[in-house]
Amino acid sequence: MPHHCCVPGCVRNTAATPDLSVHGFPSDPDLKKKWLLQIRRDEVRGKFEVGTATKVCGYHFIEDDYCAGGRKRKRKTAKTVRKLKKGAYPTVFEGCFPDHLVTTKESRKRPAERLPVEPKAKKSRTSSSDDPLPLTASPEPSTASSEPAESQPGCDKHCNCVLGLLSQIQELEDDLESERSDHEETKKELTSSKAKVADLENGVAVLRDQLLDRQGRRDFRSDRILADDVKIRYYTGFVTLGMFMACFNFLRPSAEGMRTWQGQRTRTGPRLTAKAGAASKLPLIEQFFLVMVRLRLGLDVVDLADRFELSPSTVSRLFTTWINLMYYKFAELPLWMSRKKVNKFMPPCFKEWYPTTRTIIDGTEFFVEQPSNLARQSATWSNYKNHNTVKALVCISPDGTVTHVSPILKALYLMLTSLRSPAYCLYWSTVTVSWRTKGLIFSTCLPPLG
Known about the structure:
By secondary structure, the protein is of the alpha+beta class. Helix content is 44%, strand content 11%. The chain has 14 helices and 12 strands. β3 and β4 form a beta hairpin.
């Protein structure tokens, strides 16, 4: 592979001159920097880059720079390659640079010795004042005419010194001009760098705001809220962490095997089938906490999605899944309290006035939209609320514990029918206390016992 000399103005290469000796740059950083300075190349600010193929030909080195002898190149042709001494650098640039830019390894010529200046004027004046000159002067023109001939070598030395100084001044001016251009380029680079730094600072500020926002949303998690009983009661309705964990541990075995509800789809017939989706990445305790927060505070799915970093559809599916699970699991629990427990926790006022009370039944209504079907409009209409509602029976023990909630009923007469169901009659005592509310007397519709 032919190599070209990288010195500016040098056109020598190994293709045209096969016997040309070329040398790569040294690995020592200081010596490499000296090479670049000698050949007038700038690797830092310029476009010049030193590589493995960057060479300097042997014409730029003097004979003293080479070692004695040589080494054989590992090729078919036994060509002798001359090896440079350690610390050698190029110094010969004849025909490459202007004369005033060429530097050699020889030191600068010493300035010419100045001739001693004889004190002529002052001495003559003092001598004339002290000792008057004789009237007959000596023949001085001959000596005056001979002085220029004697002082001619000194003038040449002075001229050479002045020329050397002028060349140095020219070199310094050129260096100053290059430094000025480099300074201008540096100022431009600094201005662009400041603009980039400003853009990066703005990006960092945006990322910091996003991080703080994300950390603020992450603060609304079960591990932080469940550490405070006051927050547990506010967000979930459970009095303590122990009650929350007891309910969660009761549902956990079934929750670990469940899959998220994905909605319903209709087949060819009227039968609806549910499809199970993939399991959510949100931990089970976080899912249960999300469901209890919505049941307690009634938050919208969009609000919960932003708090838990989920999509609204995911929150809706998780809520439906857990509601169905809790419905089937809690239905297995015996909510009706025994006679012994009712008497044990009965308030004193009930013990005095109503000692045989087992449960207190009340009917409640929930507003619904007006159905388009006229029969359903009539069945769900409530004169008491003056609106379309659905009804349900709620049973509590004398101490306030909810023991039963009936299914949603459309009409008032269905509430009377539900009271005759075995779910209620199995727990009636021989003595039944009648409660009248909204014009309905429960004792009249209960089936006789015994």
